[in-house]
């Protein structure tokens, strides 16, 4: 809104929305015109976007190597296997976005041996079964991004994505605003998935029938 003298006039209510810091300075509302959009402020993602690859220079700085040394709750681990483990993605595309990770710090799918390959595959299948029981997705995205140019957020340590999908979960937010609305906290999802995970040694068991 522009006043008669050509100076931008304060807009009533323009500074009422949370934007991550103070919206009123020295008694004056900041510039802006209200619209119909709500904003999800996610400044924590900036470190991941700007420096994810550079931060992992060795096993000592690798979050996938560090995770098994922490408690399951701290590291978001839902299952620990013999050669690989399963944990929630800290930056999920959807609630229940899991990562299947070998313990060994290797970057490429061709670097893991037969036992590791078999367990990663079995844990991926179990992850799908568990997510179907817990949250009833209608589809999945599975994949490994190989190398930084292949889209891997942490290229130095191999990991397989298991992303549950529902009809209508891809809307304008990720496309236009690069923002994803997640319906549950990571702690809630970790507890649900860990509780539903089959006992160790029974990872490949079929799901219980749904009544």
From TrEMBL:
The keyword Nucleotide-binding applies. Signal peptide: none annotated. Residues 63-172 form the HIT domain. It comes from the Bacteria. One of its GO terms (molecular function) is nucleotide binding. Substrate binds at residues 89, 161. Pfam families: HIT. CDD domains: FHIT (cd01275). Keywords: Nucleotide-binding. The active site is at residue 159. A motif (Histidine triad motif) lies at residues 157-161. This is HIT domain-containing protein. It comes from Arthrobacter bussei.
